[in-house]
Specification:
This is Amidohydrolase. Keywords: Hydrolase, Signal. A hairpin with an 8-residue loop joins strand 1 and strand 2. This protein is an alpha/beta fold. The longest helix has 29 residues. The chain is built from 13 helices and 14 strands. The protein has an 8-stranded mixed beta sheet with strand order 1-2-6-3-7-14-8-13, with helices on both faces. It has 2 domains: about 350 residues, Zn peptidases (Aminopeptidase); about 110 residues, Alpha-Beta Plaits.
Length: about 475
């Protein structure tokens, strides 16, 4: 599907009629608006799913979202905070609250998959939307446009602002938006994420630091003159052994994981370059920093032991989530009013087949349910939304875009994210976000309470400092590293 075709689909949709600001009329008008825009949402999500662009390389996906927002009357500023695929889109009418809505659109490497209910990779394709960000971005702009339409029809004062956020998967794109001060005047931020159930997200996520360790050695013939070589791969492997022994002596809730991204080209050539890509996670950012320091010491020791040298680059780093309980109450009320998904017989048959490939099976009918999130729970993953939550009152939700029991970052999630069941979950998200944004526009007390809650939670002495430091965006973090270690 081309950009032109998707834009045409968006432009031919009818504009719904609006009532006044009375709560019931407001809700029915906004819901009707999102319903009218659902074909465009589906086309946008499918196009981004097909492109499957990874972090900081989402040129077509970002351009499509920007184009639709421009057509809807938003002022769009591309390339913000040093990221070519980031953008800010604003619709402002008079003075009033600023409600931010986040949009993501990056894919994951190694997960190319069709919409089949069995594992069917796409030949020649490397990436797939295993976290459903194709749905994320499409639903978020749909919600923003519905809020804008309601504001215009009812002369509501305020601003709805969309933050196009690239490279959530390890690139920490939103950290650079925070660091650039783009949320300083925002009253509240709303977001959502694809999942296998419907709930408001009030649990904790894990802070993390990620980076690449690059070892440099001396190449030689591995059989004829091995004494002349110094293996960079040996450095990587000794580092891995040291870190593995270290796991016993870190807080038990800490996660350390890595892959070797480069390790040589031929067994009979001593590799002069090798690279390992590490993540360290814990709910407590202080523990993350301490453990990361020990990982870097392991790398330095490995280089000393193998006669190589090592350098490292921090490519990402995020805080843990500080969700707003005040905003959660508003969002939960709206999620309950919208309700869960209703699948057709064909969708249920597809999901039944897909369920056979899942390690955990839950009733398919659970997608109709809505439940509050578990407060204080550790979700296990990390997100750059967390940095926003420490600077601006923030709340989000999950919706059932996948078959119940589907883990994120899986081929099953990719398949469902390209299906109509994914779109149905995205519509629930768009309606809930739009209704919550409208409620907050008219509720200064809720916004004031959310701000007070945030200030109390982070403490009087809190000063934001990004986990990844002062580095520029790691725009090449998803690009393959050359075998010789060059850039």
């Amino acid at each position: 599907m081309t950009l032109k075709h998707v834009l045409l689909a968006a432009l031919v949709l009818p504009m719904p009629a609006f009532a006044q600001v009375a709560p019931d009329a407001r809700r029915s008008a906004i819901v009707a608006d999102v319903d009218a825009r659902t074909p465009a949402l589906a086309a946008t999500a499918k196009a981004i799913w097909g492109w499957s662009e990874v972090g900081y390389q989402e040129a077509k996906s970002s351009a499509l979202l920007q184009a639709q927002l421009k057509k809807a009357g938003f002022t769009v500023t591309p390339g913000v905070a040093g990221m070519p695929t980031a953008f800010v889109a604003s619709f402002k009418q008079g003075s009033g609250p600023v409600i931010g809505i986040l949009a993501e659109y990056d894919a994951l490497p190694g997960l190319a998959q069709t919409t089949a209910s069995s594992k069917t990779p796409i030949e020649g394709k490397a990436a797939g939307h295993g976290c459903g960000h194709n749905l994320f971005g499409a639903a978020s702009i749909t919600a923003a446009i519905a809020v804008k339409d309601w504001m215009v029809a009812n002369k509501v004062q305020g601003e709805v602002r969309v933050f196009g956020s690239p490279a959530e998967e390890g690139g920490s794109g939103k950290v650079y938006l925070v660091r650039a001060g783009l949320f300083k005047d925002v009253s509240a931020v709303l977001h959502w994420h694809p999942a296998d159930a419907n709930s408001v997200s009030v649990g904790k996520s894990m802070a993390n630091i990620s980076g690449k360790f690059r070892f440099h050695g001396v190449s030689a013939h591995a059989a004829a003159s091995p004494e002349m070589g110094r293996s960079a791969l040996d450095g990587v492997e000794v580092m891995d052994v040291a870190v593995n022994f270290m796991r016993e002596h870190v807080p038990s809730s800490t996660r350390i994981h890595n892959i070797i991204t480069a390790g040589g080209e031929a067994p009979n050539v001593v590799p002069d370059f090798a690279e390992s890509y590490y993540y360290v996670r814990n709910v407590d950012p202080t523990i993350v920093k301490e453990v990361w320091g020990r990982v870097t010491k392991a790398a330095e020791g490995a280089a000393l032991a193998t006669g190589t040298t090592v350098d490292f680059e921090v490519t990402g780093g995020v805080y843990s989530m500080l969700a707003s309980n005040t905003l959660a109450k508003v969002m939960m009320r709206n999620l309950e009013s919208v309700g869960g998904e209703q699948w057709t017989a064909e969708e249920t048959a597809w999901a039944t087949q897909m369920q056979k490939a899942l390690p955990t099976q839950r009733p398919l009918t659970s997608v109709t349910d809505v439940s509050p999130g578990e407060r204080g729970a550790d979700g296990g993953g990390s997100t750059d939304v967390s940095d926003i939550s420490w600077s601006t009152p923030t709340i989000g939700l999950n919706t059932a875009t996948w078959v119940p029991g589907t883990p994120a970052h899986s081929w099953q999630a990719v398949a469902a994210s390209g299906m109509s069941i994914g779109v149905k979950g995205a519509v629930v998200a768009a309606k809930t976000i739009a209704l919550t944004a409208a409620d907050l526009m008219l509720d200064p007390q809720a916004l004031a309470d959310a701000r007070a809650e945030l200030e109390k939670a982070r403490g009087a002495d809190f000063a934001y400092a990004a986990m990844l430091g002062s580095r520029a965006p790691a725009l090449n973090y998803r690009k393959p590293v050359p075998a010789w270690g060059g850039k």
